[in-house]
Amino acid sequence: MKTLSQKDFTNKRAVIRVDFNVPLDENFKVTDNTRIIAAKETIELVLKGGGSCVLISHLGRPKGKDAQFSLSHILEEVKQVLNVPVEFCDDCVGPEAEKVTGDLKPGSVILMENLRYYSEETAGDIGFAAQLSKLGDCYINDAFGTAHRAHASTTIIAKFFKDEKYFGKLLEKEVTAIKKVMETGEKPVLAILGGAKVSSKITIIENMLDKIDHLIIGGGMVYTFVKAMGGSVGQSICEDEFCDYALELIEKAKAKGVQIHLPTDVIIADDFSNDANKRPCDVYKIPEDWQGLDAGPETLKQFESVVLESKTILWNGPLGVFEFSSFATGTITLGEHISKSTANGAFSLVGGGDSVAAVKQFGFESKMSYISTGGGAMLESLEGKTLPGIAALME
Ligand code: AMP
Fold it and tell me: Do domains 4-167 and 174-382 have the same CATH topology?
C-alpha cells in the first residue's frame, strides 16, 4: 500500500478523487459536510508538502450537464472547511480544464465540475480516464464511498499513474480498520449483525464466520432464526424462505467454533408505530397480532457481557427499529456497551448504513474506534470482496 507519507509533493499537482457527494437543501446549501471534513487531512498533507490539489468528485446522479448537480454549489463550504482559497473549474476534462490545472501554483486548490456530467465516468471509459489523468502528475484516491465502483475516476485512471498513485488518508484509515477486524483483530472477535433482513446479510455472515469467535444476531433478522427453530413470531418481520438457511448457518457456526447469540426476550408492539402498545416478551412466544421491534432487557444484559469480553468488535445494523424512539433502547444500550468496551481497550468498527446513522444520532461518534464513511463499499469489504478502487492502487 503506497501511502502519502512516502511521497514528496514539491511542485507536484495531485489529482485527488474525493467523495464530495454531500446532501444539499432546496437552496443548494450543504446540510452535512462530514465528507468534506473527511478529505481535509489528505488535502492539507499535499499542500504542506509543497504541492497543489485538483479535486475531482461526483455529486448526485445527473443525466448529462445539469446545473442542479453542479459542484459550484458546494464551493463555499469546501473553502470554509479547508480554510484556504479554492478555485472552481466548470469542467472536469478538456482543454480548459487542462489549462487551468496546468497553471496551478504550489499551495493552491481547484475543485473541478461534476464527473458524472459525463456518462463515461460511470461506464469506466478508458478515454475519459486518460483525459482526467492529464490534470496532474500523481493520483490520490481518497473516496472510500465509491471505491467499490470501477468508474473512470475511481479505478481506471490509476492505469495512467504507474508509480504515482496513492492511498489518501481516509482510504488508508478505512482499509486499516477493516483489516483490524478481518485479519489482524485481537481475539475474541465479535460481529454484531442487526438490521432488517437475513437475505441482505448472507454474504457478510458467511464471510465473517471464518474470522470471528462470537456472532450477535439482532434486529429484524432474529425472527427468521426464531421461526426456523420452532418459535412463534406473530407479525414480526420474517423471511420464511430463509428459515432453512438460518438453520444451516447455525450448524456452520457450530462447526467453525463460532458462538451465536440470539435474543431471549424482545420488546413487542401491537402495531408498527412509535405509539403502539408495547411490552417485553419471550422471543419464542410472540402472540399472533404482535411483532418484535426491539431487543428486551434480559437480552441486553446477555449481550453486554459478550461485548465487554470482546477485544475486536464489528457492528453492522441496529438492534431494533431505532427510528421510533419507543424502540431505540436496544440500539442505544448496545452503543453504550460498545463504547465501554472500547474505552477498556477493544477495537470497535461501525460500518455499513443504518448503524452508522444510529451511532451519530445517539452521540456515540467519538466513543467508537472507527466509523466507516462508506455504506456500500464497507458492506462489500465485509463480504470479502476486493474493491476495484483499492485493487487499482495496488497493481
Ligand atoms: P439494514 O439496512 O439491513 O441494516 O436495516 C436497518 C433497518 O432495520 C432499520 O431501518 C431498522 O428500523 C430495521 N429494523 C431493525 N429491527 C427491526 C425489527 N425488529 N423489525 C423491523 N425492522 C427492523
Answer: yes
Domain 4-167, CATH: 3.40.50.1260
Q: Which tens digit of pLDDT belongs to each residue from 324-367?
A: 999 999 999 999 999 999 999 999 999 977 889 899 999 999 99
Closest ligand 1 atom number to CA of residue 322: 12
Q: Which grid cell sits at 34?
A: 462530514
User: 318 C-alpha to center of ligand 1: Å?
Assistant: 6
CB–CB of 161/139 below 8 Å? yes
User: Residue 320 Cα, ligand 1 centroid: separation in angstroms?
Assistant: 6
The answer on pLDDT for 1 being more than 80 is no
CATH architecture of 174-382: 3-Layer(aba) Sandwich (3.40)
- 15's enclosing H/E stretch is strand 13-17
Please name every residue paired with 16 in a beta bridge, in sequence order, or none if there are none. Answer: 55, 140
Q: Is the CB of 321 under 6 A from ligand 1?
A: yes
Atom of ligand 1 nearest to the CA of 294: 19
**Distance from the alpha carbon of residue 265 to the mean position of ligand 1, in angstroms:** 17
Instruction: Please tell me the distance from the alpha carbon of residue 198 to that of residue 255, in angstroms, as a whole number.
Output: 20
How far apart CA 105 and CA 238 sit, in angstroms, is 59
Known catalytic residues?
35, 197, 353, 376
Query: Which atom of ligand 1 has the smallest separation from the CA of 196?
Result: 8
Torsion angle in degrees (nearest 10) through CA of 79, 49, 142, 17? 70
pLDDT in tens, 299-310: 999 999 999 999
